[in-house]
Amino acid sequence: MEQKNIWAIGGGKGGVGKSFVAGNLGILLAQKGYNVILADLDLGGANLHTWLGVNSPTKGLSDFIEREILNIEKLLIPTKIPGLSLISGAKDGVEIANLKHTQKRRFLSALRGLDADYIVIDLGAGSSYNTVDFFLLADSQIIVVIPEPTSIENAYRFIKNSFFRQIFHNSKNYGLKSVVTPILHKDNSYNVNTPKELIDYLNKLGGSATVFIEEQLQLFKPKMILNQVRTERGQLVGPAMKAACSKYFNLNIKFMGYIAEDESVWKSVLDRKPLAVAHPDGVPIQQLKKICADILLEETDGAAKNNLLSQLAL
Ligand SMILES: Nc1ncnc2c1ncn2[C@@H]1O[C@H](COP(=O)(O)OP(=O)(O)O)[C@@H](O)[C@H]1O
Ligand SMILES: [Mg+2]
Question: Which DSSP letter does residue 71 get?
Fold first, then answer.
């Protein structure tokens, strides 16, 4: 299967700017000349179509899941932005409850088969299995957080749930499912409540459990964007969260930078004109551009990286 660059944008809390980040990242990539698909997987509240000025989609992921549409290409909705198309989540107002993991995998591999350079997935709020699984199935995981206690708390919960879910899924391949499943239960008798405690526990078991956890730590490297920053003190939340994840969770999170709070952002939503189109030179989009270039660099290595560096003139 051809490797695609699928970026998923999650983060726990609603209203922090996941759709703003996902939508504008999609546009920025399309403006660079890439072929981009935006997938609106906020299954309870899909709204990227409104934001892109596209009529309410009549078909989406739910039709693919129900096998009413077999060819995923039929879900692609063109947008006014050259190079950018949209795939909608559910039919209007229909929430897809718990999808089976095989259904999620089938959808993701169909997405990978599409003719696109980048696919950006906008996820819903919360840490439900649907959200976390789509997040984990992507190639690059991006968490959006704002410098407010509720968002920070939700982001930590999202990180913890994602890590535990990844361990749960991958333990099967190591024949460790029966070891891992009871530990991941809430109120387990192993005293394992945080990723750090889980890592320590598996390390102590030794043998294949140690190899397994090392590999899982290599795999789990979400990136973080701090949005809606109003003050200098607010900016510090990004590095502070990275440090806390390392200290208390033993997890390596990559802090990608911050985006200022700016009225142009919510005004662009009211005007139904994406900010990367309406105000490409304003501060928030300049900040997102830098983050986008850094993510592209992270995803590339070797000769391709030198090529990209010269293209980006960094
Ligand atoms: N950097 C920002 N500055 C000002 N308003 C913002 C910023 N980021 C997001 N918003 C506004 O916050 C609201 C929620 O953003 P949205 O992207 O829909 O969040 P989510 O998808 O996480 O629920 C929108 O009205 C959006 O315009
Ligand atoms: Mg949203």
Answer: -
